[in-house]
């Protein structure tokens, strides 16, 4: 009987190792965040009119977490990414860096941006020391601004 139990335990262990090796590293290594943490855009407000083709200030807010620059791995910290006119990226991949995904890896908590005339969306997503979303992900609600 002991031999049957040993073989069964060994099979379970092998299956666990196989499943772990098949999972993407990012899923296994996702940086934890406090369940109560949230990001928000302090300015501009949802629905606000901002100047078109002129810089305006965007202020980032964060509760129940701290801000740390890229490359600094410290518990319950991360840095902001501003998403412009796009949806949240996949949560198991590095946050893209392009004109729709602005990185603030120096730990900035505000920026100046410029938008063409029209309706635009803004959203914040926190990333860890390597630009990966936390687990659970920490992001703001998506707001809309009108550039005129």
From TrEMBL:
Q: Which residues form the signal peptide?
A: 1-22
Q: Where is the DUF4399 domain?
A: 58-145
Question: Is Signal found in the keyword set?
Answer: yes
- At the top level of its lineage, which domain of life is listed? Bacteria
UniProt keyword annotations, A-Z: Signal
Please give the name of this protein.
DUF4399 domain-containing protein
Q: Which organism is it from?
A: Paraburkholderia antibiotica
Q: What is the lineage of its organism?
A: Bacteria, Pseudomonadati, Pseudomonadota, Betaproteobacteria, Burkholderiales
